[in-house]
Amino acid sequence: MRGAIYRQLWFQVLIATIAGIALGHWAPGLGVPLKPLGDAFIALIRMMIAPVIFCTVVHGIASANDMKSVGRLAIRSLIYFEIITILALIIGLIAVNLWQPGVGMNVDLSSLDAKSVETYVATAHEQSITGYLLAIIPTTFLSAFTEGQVLQVLLISCLFGMAVATMGEKGRPIVDMVDKLSAAFFRIIHFLMYLSPVGAFGAIAFTVGKFGSGSLVSLGELIIMFLLLCLVFTIVVLGGVARLVNVSLWRLLIYMRDEIVIVAATTSTETVLPRIIEKMRAAGCDEKVVGFVVPAGYSFNLDGTCLYLTVVAVFLAQATNTPLDLWHQLVLLAVLLLTSKGAAGVAGAAFVVLAATLGTTGTIPVASIAMILGIHRILAEGLTFVNLIGNCLAAVVLATWEGAIDREKLATTIGNAKARQLAGD
After folding, report:
1. What residues form the membrane-spanning segments (predicted)?
2. Which of 100, 264, 322, 390 has a CB 3.0–4.6 Å from the CB of 317, allowing a cystine?
3. Cβ count within 10 A of residue 170
4. Which residues 6+ apart lie within 8 Å of 290 measured at CB?
5. Considering only CA atoms, which of 301, 306, 279, 299 is closest in space to residue 290?
6. What span, in angstroms and rounded, lies between the C-alpha atoms of 404 and 384?
7. Cα of 38 vs its chain's centroid, Å
8. Cα separation, 205 vs 425, whole angstroms
9. Arithmetic mean of pLDDT, 189-206
10. Beta bridge partners of 285
11. Can you point out the beta strands (E) in 248-297?
12. Residue 298: which residues within 8 A CB-CB, separation 6 or more?
């Protein structure tokens, strides 16, 4: 324990979350206007993401002696991301076909409020694979930081880090300066974390006050099925990966408890991205690996989002009695392999990707997503949790694969019995 429990961040956020739920339920008129508290906290953390990624990646790459290792890390990361996300898509597809939560609902599309999702549909129409790839390239060097696009910042950081690394001794002062800036930016993150209970209180009070509990009854089976699926995927799949790299899943959950509670309240993994980078470095993962893998994972390693997309898409087909044979589901899976990479770690992004996917396949009516608009934030509790744990594990997997992990730190933080034994040897 790190002192009295009331001083620990996870406990403070948990109490604030419970208070927000109570206020949103019993006094929704007071809860809904508190949305700016959650938005402000997310905005404060978001403004720090770009400088934290830049400093971490630049310092990690510039300190490396072998530039080939950077390219090797990128290739290995993409291979791992694809394997895990494909597995998540397949598991989600199998689970929703076995459970069939939408069968028997017989929803009439004319009864749905299509206007409520017009904004999401319009945004989805603007999505394309070519556009997504081109969007990784910023308009200018500085615009990568002002627009807040994680992949743009990652691209600029990699290029700058490689440039500094090839400068030899002339680049050493730049590396030292970046290291000092990194320490300052992480100190700011620590300051901002004191506001996380306030942000959690506002975010959850708005969610409960806005959507209430009525939608939970009519769509309760989908919620239960999806949250159970997220739990099973975490224990079986991510737990299996954890064992392969000598990590205790239980110790990892305890180690990341502050971040888990914050993500649960804000339904956005972006609020803890800088903290993940800091904590995975403290767990023994090399700075270069963490600096690349964690930001890249926010677009390419969204396991929970993949579960969400397959489950909800097939659920909507079941609920609206839309025929969806094996061929249509394989096409859906193929499309999701591409569209799922466009979902960032921001609250609501998965909803836009879902609309884009349905629009691309043309099989399931896009207007049907209005059915889950009221429970999306509830489903996001499961998907953001899986995304968070998945990206933490990805850092350990790639660090182990690269031989860039401190066994002693791993053993004292999240390592299992075998890791502790190896550290002792």
Report:
1. 9-28, 40-61, 73-99, 150-168, 188-211, 223-245, 300-320, 326-344, 351-376, 382-401
2. 322
3. 9
4. 56, 60, 277, 280, 281, 395, 399
5. 279
6. 27
7. 17
8. 50
9. 88
10. 405
11. none
12. 150, 269, 270, 273, 344, 345, 391
pLDDT, tens digit (0-9, with 9 covering 90-100), for 313-351: 999 888 888 888 888 888 888 878 776 765 554 445 677
Task: Identify the residue whose tokens are 């927000």.
Answer: 20
What is the separation of C-alpha 6 from the centre of its chain, rounded to a whole number of angstroms? 28
Q: Which residues contact 139 (CB under 8 A, 6 or more apart)?
A: none
Contact (CB, 8 A) for 415 and 250: no
Stronger pLDDT, 165 or 3, i.e. the higher one = 165
pLDDT at residue 4 tops 90 = no
Asked if pLDDT for residue 2 goes beyond 70, the answer is no
Structure tokens belonging to residue 143 = 């615009």
Task: Count CA atoms within 13 Å of residue 346 on its CB side.
Answer: 15
Q: Which amino acid is at 103?
A: V
Return d(Cα 25, Cα 39) in angstroms, integer. Answer: 20
Instruction: Count each helix (H run) and each strand (E run) in the chain, helices first.
Output: 23, 0
Q: According to the model, what pLDDT value does residue 77 have? A: 92
Distance CA 81, CA 303 (A): 9
241 against 288, higher pLDDT: 241
* 195, burial (CB in 10 Å: exposed 0-12, middle 13-18, buried 19+): middle
- Token reading at 359: 């629009």
Short-list 349, 312, 329, 3, CA closest to 149: 349
Give me the residue spans of the domains in the chain: 5-424
Is the model's pTM score more than 0.90? no
Per-residue DSSP letters for 359-415?
HHH-SS-GGGGGGGGGGHHHHHHHHHHHHHHHHHHHHHHHHHHTT-B-HHHHHHHTB
Tokens of 275: 């903290």
First to last CA, the chain: 27
The class of domain 5-424 in CATH terms is mainly alpha
